[in-house]
Design goal:
This protein has a three-stranded antiparallel sheet. It is an alpha+beta fold and 68 residues long. The chain is built from two helices and three strands, in the order ββαβα. It has one domain. α1 crosses α2. Bound molecules: zinc ion (ZN). Zinc ion binds next to β1.
């Protein structure tokens, strides 16, 4: 069962194991907004919790989730 988290070098991991990429994307975007409100910047990207790289179809899922 793949799981995702939003993680960045500076801000670290969100600490979740999201079961869907859409859920991880919502989490990432909430962090982007939260950082923005504090005048900061979120460097988080979505990754597999096991460290495997995000695949092309998953990139498309993320892009689709960003639109809706
Ligand atoms: Zn999360």
């Amino acid at each position: 069962m793949p799981a995702y988290h939003a993680v960045g070098n500076v801000t670290g991991s969100c600490g979740h194991a999201h079961r869907s990429i859409q859920s991880a994307e919502r989490c990432r975007r909430a962090h982007v907004i939260g950082c923005h409100l504090q005048g900061g910047y979120s460097d988080r990207e979505i990754e597999h919790t096991n460290g495997q790289p995000i695949e092309d179809w998953e990139e498309r899922e993320i892009a689709d989730a960003s639109i809706s």
